[in-house]
């Protein structure tokens, strides 16, 4: 399975959760699959989707889902430690792990040899799962209580999707409106 179908699997279960999507194809693919004001398409900062999601989780009550890439998680590994220790009770990080910098041409990452799920468990995440072992819909329907790390192992590949034809201001403002509702 490639990223596009993985995001489809995730998106079909979404209701009112806030979603932070990583820069590049994850955002573009989510935009095509299920655009909604609850999606924040992160346009610039590789590595910071998880940090933005954590801040959002801590500052309001809605559930927050971060769709991150393995390359970006490796770039900001400390964020996992911060998330675990801050212990947000409404936060899910999904690592879409294609073991590649997919959005810039599928150059291999170290996740070919390094297991992000083992890293999350060793940091302390008690709720650290393989996507294939869980019922994601059920997880979303329950109280989260402590941060959840979900490892979604996928094959490299970018779907043939267009760019996001919303201005950064539009993405930000409609998202802010939903957050403040
Ligand atoms: C700090 C920084 N370095 C590099 C880039 C260029 N860049 C944008 S997306 C990307 C690859 C992201 O890979 P990953 O997080 O694994 O996600 P994927 O695209 O594979 O889903 C790179 C290198 C950037 N935007 N910011």
TrEMBL record:
Source organism superkingdom: Archaea
UniProt keyword list: Coenzyme M biosynthesis, Decarboxylase, Lyase, Transferase
Keyword hit for Lyase: yes
Keyword Transferase: yes
Recorded metabolic or biological pathway in which this protein acts: Cofactor biosynthesis; coenzyme M biosynthesis; sulfoacetaldehyde from phosphoenolpyruvate and sulfite: step 4/4
UniProt xrefs under SUPFAM superfamilies: Thiamin diphosphate-binding fold (THDP-binding)
GO biological-process terms attached to the record: coenzyme M biosynthetic process
InterPro entries (UniProt xref): Sulfopyruvate_deCO2ase_bsu, THDP-binding, TPP_dependent_decarboxylase, TPP_enzyme_TPP-bd
Molecular function per GO: sulfopyruvate decarboxylase activity; thiamine pyrophosphate binding; transferase activity
Record-listed E.C. numbers: 4.1.1.79
Reactions listed under catalytic activity: 3-sulfopyruvate + H(+) = sulfoacetaldehyde + CO2
Residues in Thiamine pyrophosphate enzyme TPP-binding domain copies: 40-151
Chain's role: Involved in the biosynthesis of the coenzyme M (2-mercaptoethanesulfonic acid). Catalyzes the decarboxylation of sulfopyruvate to sulfoacetaldehyde.
PANTHER family: SULFOPYRUVATE DECARBOXYLASE, SULFOPYRUVATE DECARBOXYLASE SUBUNIT ALPHA
Assembly mode: Heterododecamer composed of 6 subunits alpha and 6 subunits beta.
Protein name: sulfopyruvate decarboxylase
Organism field: Methanobrevibacter filiformis
